[in-house]
Recover the amino acids of this structure.
């Protein structure tokens, strides 16, 4: 399942109002725009919707009106309409084709479609709960399970603020051998191990074998880091008990391994991204990955190599990929068909891409100008 369309409003009529006009997306999406144009905020809106649908948001947001379309691999389309106010649900609807699957207004009773007869049954839940999550039942409401699978499979990372190589020294980042006895549990969708990269790595090697390691090495070589081996093990120079387990790599031009705390920040961030994308490809679990400020802190060649590698991973793995950047040199190396130009005027955000402006994009490509020229031209328009 993929997120095909989203429209969003918050604090409508208030000085804090912020709106995203209806935006269409494809499988691969590079969001480009000036600083403060709304790229990161748009990613947070989409990832926030996924957290709500997965029941991973501790409390409902104070304000927000979402209109989103989710499409299954077989072309089945779900339209979800949700309005929140003062941390409560004011309306909630789910439509598939011409059929109402979920109807709910305010704090009163709602109706939900039951299977297999397709009848609408009454229900009543608290106004601070989403029906689309609270009513999950794979027998009576299998369509909710499809949506939950998408929501639980989303991952949101900020490349520039990924835990650095020294984070292993923090108590919350130290893992021990007894945590990696059950790879299936570690790699599950419970969001509990998202930041424990070394734990994910050990579990993935146990589950997928050397093919997983070889794929990461090949990807890192493509990015520009010449590795011949990598793995996990007890790190030196950390006088803790139990001793921490971390990542290491063997670079081709060095005789010794480079442990996690010895890596450059750029190498560690690239390794983080590559490992997570390989997990997505091998496990076929994440449905959508949001990666903010991709390539931040890397030199030009490695930024470009990383983005191209991530695009290949998404295409092969079949998951949807959203990335953001405002690096003009990196932009020019990414095909225009993957671009989504973010244009903000005041509190209104517009998105232009191949999905909604194909003729305009194709006309521009025929002019022979570079991609950044298109970005600049469109960023100046209201």
């Amino acid at each position: 399942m993929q997120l095909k369309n989203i429209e969003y409003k918050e604090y409508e009529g208030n000085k804090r109002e912020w709106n995203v006009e209806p935006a269409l997306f494809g499988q691969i999406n590079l969001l480009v725009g000036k600083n403060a144009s709304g790229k990161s905020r748009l990613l947070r809106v989409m990832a926030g919707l996924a957290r709500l649908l997965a029941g991973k948001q501790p409390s409902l947001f104070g304000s927000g009106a979402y209109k989103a379309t989710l499409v299954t691999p077989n072309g089945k389309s779900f339209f979800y309409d949700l309005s929140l106010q003062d941390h409560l649900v004011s309306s909630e609807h789910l439509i598939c084709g011409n059929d109402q699957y979920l109807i709910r207004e305010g704090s009163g009773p709602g109706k939900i479609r039951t299977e297999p007869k397709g009848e609408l049954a009454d229900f009543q839940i608290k106004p601070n709960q989403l029906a689309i999550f609270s009513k999950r039942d794979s027998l009576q409401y299998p369509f909710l399970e499809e949506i939950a699978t998408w929501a639980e499979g989303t991952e949101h990372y900020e490349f520039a603020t990924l835990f650095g190589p020294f984070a292993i020294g923090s108590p919350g980042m130290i893992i021990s051998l007894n945590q990696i006895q059950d790879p299936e549990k570690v790699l599950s969708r419970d969001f509990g191990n998202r930041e424990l990269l070394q734990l994910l790595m050990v579990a993935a090697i146990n589950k997928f074998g050397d093919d997983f390691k070889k794929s990461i090495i090949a990807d890192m070589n493509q990015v520009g880091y010449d590795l011949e081996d990598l793995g996990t093990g007890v790190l030196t120079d950390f006088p803790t008990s139990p001793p921490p387990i971390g990542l290491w790599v063997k670079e081709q031009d060095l005789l010794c391994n480079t442990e996690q705390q010895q890596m450059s920040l750029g190498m560690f961030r690239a390794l983080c991204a590559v490992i997570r994308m390989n997990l997505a490809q091998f496990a076929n679990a994440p449905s959508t990955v949001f990666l903010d400020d991709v390539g931040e802190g890397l030199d030009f060649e490695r930024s470009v190599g990383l983005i191209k590698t991530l695009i290949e991973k998404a295409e092969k793995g079949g998951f949807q990929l959203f990335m953001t950047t405002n690096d003009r040199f990196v932009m020019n190396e990414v095909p225009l068909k993957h671009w989504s130009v973010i244009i903000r005027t005041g509190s209104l955000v517009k998105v232009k891409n191949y999905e909604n402006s194909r003729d305009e994009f194709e006309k521009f490509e025929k002019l022979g100008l570079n991609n950044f020229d298109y970005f600049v031209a469109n960023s100046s328009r209201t």
About this structure: Confidence is low (pLDDT under 50) at residues 163-172.
